[in-house]
Amino acid sequence: MSQGPLMPKATAVWLVENTSLAFEQIADFCKLHPLEVKGIADGEVAAGIKGLDPITTGQLTRDEIEKAQKAPNYRLKVAVSKVKLPEVKRTTKGPRYTPLSRRQDRPNAILWLIRNHPELKDAQVIRLVGTTKATIQQIRERTHWNSASLQPMDPVTLGLCSQIDLDFEVQRAAKDRPAVLPTDGGAKLLPTEVSTAPAAAEREEEEEDLNADAVFAKLKGMSRIDEDDDEV
What we know:
Among the domains are: 8-70, no CATH class; 100-176, no CATH class. 53% of the residues lie in helices and 0% in strands.
């Protein structure tokens, strides 16, 4: 289906009043029903609508109209504009727009994000729920005017953001977080087998030393007794 005029009924009114085009031709060009065009001609439809000249608006040429008036089966074609407008690129910068009906839920969503994903930066929270840095700081410090009534609620459940957006921001925050290096926790306790082995060995050596001294002392005592017996 070809593109129709910008204001179809107003254009049809002008074509009915200023040309001898057939109702079918006007209906085809304006994307209307032929009976609706006939009603415009009879004054029953589009009463009070001022006709719009498609020639001055650049939607039709005079040659195109004259060609169609000479051939009742000819279909009018919209004139191609010679001026090309640049495409409007959609920007994603700035905070997310939040509907009025959902704005009262934003503090609850911010509280949920702060508690469940403390690794998220303020800029990420702003992108997710469309808030301000000052509001985030107030909720963190419990200085928000409604802090006593806030309840942490999932922003996905509230419809403030999608699960894909939330997962993306969480993954980005995890990548930006510095790696946690293993820290020296101080001296560690040794297993009992290791810690008790030297002590046991020392005790055994002491016991051996004590036993050896006792044996030599006993031998010396016995030798003195034998000497005394010989003297007698």
